[in-house]
Write a structure and sequence with these properties.
Helix 5 crosses helix 8 and helix 7 packs across helix 9. By secondary structure, the chain is mainly α. The chain is built from 9 helices and no strands. 37% of the residues are buried. The longest helix is centred in the last third of the chain and has 32 residues. The protein is globular, with a radius of gyration of 18 Å. The chain binds hexadecan-1-ol and fe (ii) ion (2 copies). The site of one fe (ii) ion has 7 residues, from helix 2, helix 3 and helix 6.
Length: 235
């Protein structure tokens, strides 16, 4: 007979970190995070070449990303997992391609929207939802990382806010081209995230809330933000 206790077994119970299923999902999720941190480093360094008077600050942000990458590499080692880096490179390829194109065209607002708003909001949502269901070692590391990611989101937000008059149209276009990519990345990761006891709708909600808050700070109205968000549904 099913006992009351069994029936009420909390949905947010910690997963079995030693199971083969967990490790398999972790090999992809962890790789995505490592690749994301590496690309974030490269992206901030690249943006520094477009705004030389910001190069020093941007290389400071970039260094933080390398520290994050090392932390998450340690998380995989701690669980005895090998990150599937080939998978992660493919996962980021579309967004990476759009960033490289914007970089080649010298489009700072697009580069900042992709890296400092979309990727950072994505990372913040993932880390928020991961922390309560992480193993103790990874939880400590992730808690330290998420604070830094707010610094990064804030950097992009402040630059775009200071330049809103001249960047508004470019941002609308960049949002239309890249928000659907982030949505599909969330869809792709949902199955593995579920194995880690991370809920897809929680991820989506947390992502949208950081992104929307950043857009409000930059100076878009609520109605304009709703239109920007609609791009993810239509796109
Ligand atoms: C920028 O600072 C970092 C970019 C990283 C991108 C993160 C993507 C997150 C994918 C989903 C999940 C989970 C968290 C698990 C951590 C080992
Ligand atoms: Fe990071
Ligand atoms: Fe970051």
């Amino acid at each position: 007979m099913a006992t009351l206790e069994a029936a009420a077994a909390p949905n947010d119970a910690l997963p079995d970190f030693t199971s083969a299923t967990y490790k398999d999902a972790y090999s992809r999720i962890n790789a995505i995070v490592i690749e994301g941190e590496q690309e974030a480093h490269d992206n901030y360094m690249a943006i520094g070449t477009l705004i030389p008077d910001q190069a020093e600050e941007l290389s400071r942000l970039a260094r933080m990303e390398l520290k994050h990458m090392k932390g998450f590499t340690a998380c995989a080692n701690n669980l005895g997992v090998t990150a599937d880096m080939a998978f992660a490179k493919q996962f980021f390829a579309p967004l990476h391609g759009n960033f490289q194109k914007a970089l080649a065209e010298g489009k700072v607002p697009t580069c900042l929207l992709i890296q400092a708003l979309l990727i950072e909001a994505f990372a913040i949502s993932a880390y928020h939802i991961y922390i309560p269901v992480a193993d103790p070692f990874a939880r400590k590391i992730t808690e330290g990382v998420v604070k830094d990611e707010y610094t990064h989101l804030n950097y992009g937000q402040e630059w775009l806010k200071a330049n809103l008059d001249t960047v508004r149209e470019e941002l609308e276009q960049a949002n239309r081209e890249n928000l659907p990519l982030v949505r599909s990345m969330l869809e792709q990761v949902a199955g593995d995230a579920a194995v880690l006891h991370m809920d897809k709708e929680d991820l989506m909600a947390d992502f949208l809330s950081s992104y929307q808050e950043a857009l409000l700070e930059i100076g878009f109205t609520g109605r304009e933000i709703a239109r920007l968000a609609a791009a993810a549904l239509v796109g």
